[in-house]
Each structure stands twice: as structure tokens, then as C-alpha cells.
Amino acid sequence: MAGVVVREDGRLLAIRRADNGTWELPGGILELSETPEAGVAREVLEETGIHVEVDELTGVYKNLNRGIVALVFRCKPAGGTERTSSESTAVSWLTPNEVSERMSEVFAVRLLDALDDNGPHVRSHDGKRLIPAG
Fold first, then answer.
1. Helix, strand or coil for residue 126?
2. What does the alpha-carbon distance between residue 5 and residue 2 come to, in Å, rounded to a whole number?
3. Environment class of residue 48 by beta-carbon count within 10 Å: exposed (0-12), middle (13-18) or buried (19+)?
4. What is the DSSP string of 2-52?
5. Engineering a disulfide at 38: which of 34, 70, 107, 116 sits with its beta carbon 3.0 to 4.6 angstroms away?
């Protein structure tokens, strides 16, 4: 479960993970009693300090090696102040070009997919590279 938070100027909210140093979008695992939308809002707030309004599902991404399916929702910022957490060592608003430079392909595509109106996208990957549909 993850949120692509899109600011009015088109910049995207990203975190540098504390456990492995990679840049990703904020997200995590749903609690049993929460809806996907509530879980996304909670995870984004916990990891970044930013409150969000959850808009729509923009993609479904499956890691074929680990059997993990991630739902990604486009969100709008609705207050708060950027801050790191125990799960993040940096929080930043990135341009789409910066997303492509800093993130691995399997994470960058999630943010970039959320910017178009052709979703929701359904993609598979091996943890490092996208795998063509077929």
C-alpha cells in the first residue's frame, strides 16, 4: 500500500528509507481494521508528517519473487510539515525527472503511472526490473 502525493506544482513526495537508503514513495502494510484509503493516509502521515486526501487507485504492482502485491493511490497534500521518522532518513518533494534519477525502475514507475490518466496500471516485476505483460 503506498501513496503518490502530488503537489500543485507537480512535485512528488518521496522518502529515503532508513533500512536500505533507497528512495521510494511512502507506504506500508494495512492494519486489519483499516480500509486501503485509511491505511495510505496513515502511512504517509507516519513516514513524512504530511496529511493527505486519497484520490484514486492508480496502480497494482506485483513482486513476482516475493509474492507481494502493492496498491498505489494518488493523493493530494492536505497539511502538515515534512519530517523524517524511524522509517525515513529524508523526505523530499521531487520532480518527475528526479524521481527517475533517484529511484529504481520498479518504484519510479509507480509515481510516474500516477501522473497519467490511463490507470489503474497493472504491472509485475522481479524486485529490480519490470516484467512485460503477457
1. coil
2. 9
3. buried
4. EEEEB-TTS-EEEEEETTT--EE-SB----TT--HHHHHHHHHHHHHSEEE
5. 34
Please provide residue 81's backbone torsions phi and psi, each rounded to the nearest 5 degrees: -130, 135
pLDDT, tens only, 37-83? 999 999 999 999 999 999 999 999 999 999 999 999 999 999 999 99
* pTM: predicted TM-score of the whole model, two decimal places: 0.93
Whether the Cβ atoms of residue 23 and residue 107 lie closer than 8 Å to each other: yes
Whether 6 shows a pLDDT value over 80: the answer reads yes
Count Cβ atoms below 10 Å from residue 105 Cβ, excluding itself. Answer: 11
Q: Distance between CA atoms of 129 and 124, rounded to whole angstroms?
A: 9
Task: Quickly name the fold that domain 2-131 has.
Answer: Nucleoside Triphosphate Pyrophosphohydrolase (3.90.79)
21: Cβ contacts below 8 Å, ≥ 6 apart: 89
Strand partners, 94: 12
Respond yes or no on whether the N-terminal peptide bond of residue 77 is cis (omega within 30° of 0).
no
